[in-house]
Amino acid sequence: MATFIVLLGPPGVGKGTQAKVLADMTKFAHVSSGDIFRENLKNQTELGKVAKSYMDKGELVPDDVTIRMIRDRISHPDCGSGVILDGFPRTPAQADALEKMLSEFNGHVDAVPYITATEDILIERIGGRWSCRAQGHIYHQKFSPPKQAGVCDVDGSELFQRDDDKVETVAKRIHVYLEQTIPLVDYYRGKGKLFEIDGTQAVEQVTEKLLAALKR
Ligand code: AMP
Question: Does the N-terminal peptide bond of residue 183 adopt cis geometry, omega within 30 degrees of 0?
């Protein structure tokens, strides 16, 4: 039976970075709802067109659209041994839907690392964040700068700032998180799945804590 790990935490806390490291180590599939939406946006699919208006405003894409997309993604063969969910679920309705879809595969959510940081740290982190065009490698102008400004160390592609990482949208995204996603902390704590990790530490330390907790 596949292992399902849900990475929970506010925007900018480093879920994407940690998910990539974990996926490399475990060979589980990294399923990021935000990345799938961005891919659809880039390819101008119908899904991308629907998602765009919400993403531009820092709002959540409607549950039915998001749930359908994730259901489709996790039924792919590369999800057979395990999945690291990054950015999904983000509402109680999505968490319920996830529970139902996993029970169809005879599975369940195994663990929910909850990575935390204060709002001013999140704003600083998101504001300085740059991603590479080719594969989404993530840098920060202060905390993890690329060797050459504007160029990805790994694949040489151009670095850019996500539209929704601009200051105007960041505050809105944090507000949406506090309003709609925070209830999931109690939801998963109540199920005994949640463990909290201080996301203000260095990336390597967060990974270390994450791995130690997942082993337990
Ligand atoms: P992220 O990269 O996870 O911060 O996601 C970027 C944007 O994609 C969010 O601000 C939302 O507009 C949309 N999005 C990502 N995941 C979800 C989700 N689980 N539910 C609804 N909207 C989402």
Answer: no
Q: Where do the domains of the chain lie, and which CATH numbers do they carry?
A: 3-119+169-215 (3.40.50.300)
pLDDT tens column, 2-18: 999 999 999 999 999 99
Distance, CA of 185 to CA of 177 (rounded, Å):
11
Whose CA is closest to 66, among 41, 90, 100, 42? 90
Nearest to 108 by CA among 23, 193, 194: 193
Positive or negative: CA dihedral 208, 211, 215, 216: positive
Q: Whose CA is closest to atom 6 on ligand 1?
A: 34
pTM: 0.91
CB 7 within 8 A of CB 19: yes
Look up 162 and say whether it is catalytic.
yes
Q: What is the dihedral of CA 108, 13, 114, 215, to 10 degrees?
A: 80
On the question of pLDDT at 162 being above 90, the answer is no
Q: Which of 55, 126, 176 to mutate to test the pocket of ligand 1 (most atoms within 8 A of CB)?
A: 55
